[in-house]
Amino acid sequence: MHFVDFVSGSVAGACGVAVGYPLDTVKVRIQTQKQFTGFCQCAAETLSKEGVFGFFKGMLLPLTTVSMTSSVVFGTYRNCLQCLRQARGGDWGANTKMEVFLSGLAGGVAQVSVMSPGDIVKVRLQCQTESRQRGLQKPGLKYLGPVHCLLHIVKEDGLRGLYRGALPLTLRDGPSYATYFLTYTTLHDWMSGGSNKKPHWTGVMLAGGIAGMAGWFVATPMDVIKARLQMDGVHGTQRYKGFVHCFTETLRTEGAGVFFRSLSINCLRAFPVNMVVFFTYEVLTGFLTTTPENVDSPPWGLE
C-alpha cells in the first residue's frame, strides 16, 4: 500500500487551497447570486464592500478538509492503480489509460464523504456578503465563522444537512478526477517520450495546470447545481425539491448557458492551483520515496 501518496496529496491539497481560494470565492458568488454578473464586477464589489478578507471567508475549514480529501484522492488513486495492475498480472508494467481513468474516478468518489461537510460550510460563508466591519449583531450576518456555521447547519438540518448537495458533488468529482488524472498522465507520458525519463519540473507544472482545466471543464455543470442546492433555503423559502428539480428548474428558467457561467473563472483558477498541487505532490513523493522498490511513486520532475 502506498502511504506516501496520502501524505503528499494532503500537503499538495493545502497548497492548492491557499493559491486558489480568492478565485473560488468569486466563482461561488457568481454561481449562486444573481447580483453578480461577471468576474470583474464580482471581484470589484467584493473588494469594495468587504475588503481583502472577503475573498478568504470560510477558508480555515476547507484548508483542513481539502488536505484530508486531497490525501484520500491521491492515496486512493495510487492504490487503485496498483490493484488494477496486479489484477491483470502486470505488476511491473505501466498502467493502461483505462486503469488511470477508473482509478481517478474511484479517488473522486471516495473523497466526497470527507469533503461534503467542509464544502457546504465554505459555500455558505463565501456567499455571506456582509462585512464583519458592520458588527456581529447585524441581522444579515448569519454565520460568525466556520465552526458556528457548521453547528448552525447541524442544529437546523441535522447531520444530513452537512451532505446537502452530495449527489451533484459525487457526479462532479468522479468524472472530473477521472479526466484530471487521465489528462495529467497522458501529458506526462508525452513529455517523457513514452520512456521512464522524468520530465522537467516546468513540464510537471504545465501538465498539472492543463489537467486542472480539463477536470473543471467536466465538473462545472454539476458544480453549479451543487452550489445552488447547498445555498437553497438559507435566506428563506426552499426553492428546490432535490437534485433533479434543481437541474430542470435551472435549465428551464436560465437556459443551458448557466451551467457554464463560471467555466472561465474555474479554468483561470484551476491552472495555477493544479500547477502547485502536482508540483508539490511530485516533489514530496520523490523526497519521501527512499527505496528502489517504490517504483510506482511519481517522479520528482526536477532533473
From TrEMBL:
User: Could you tell me which InterPro entries the record lists for this protein?
Assistant: MCP, MCP_dom_sf, MCP_transmembrane, Mitochondrial_Carrier
For this protein, the record's Pfam families field holds: Mito_carr (PF00153)
GO molecular function: any one?
transmembrane transporter activity
**PANTHER family, A to Z:** MITOCHONDRIAL BASIC AMINO ACIDS TRANSPORTER-RELATED, SOLUTE CARRIER FAMILY 25 MEMBER 47
Location comes to: Mitochondrion inner membrane
- Entry keywords, A to Z: Membrane, Mitochondrion, Mitochondrion inner membrane, Repeat, Transmembrane, Transmembrane helix, Transport
User: What is the name of the protein in this document?
Assistant: Solute carrier family 25 member 47a
What does the sequence similarity comment in the record state about its family? Belongs to the mitochondrial carrier (TC 2.A.29) family.
How is this protein annotated for GO cellular component? mitochondrial inner membrane
Q: Where are the Solcar repeats?
A: 1-83, 98-190, 199-287
Per the record, membrane topology reads: Multi-pass membrane protein
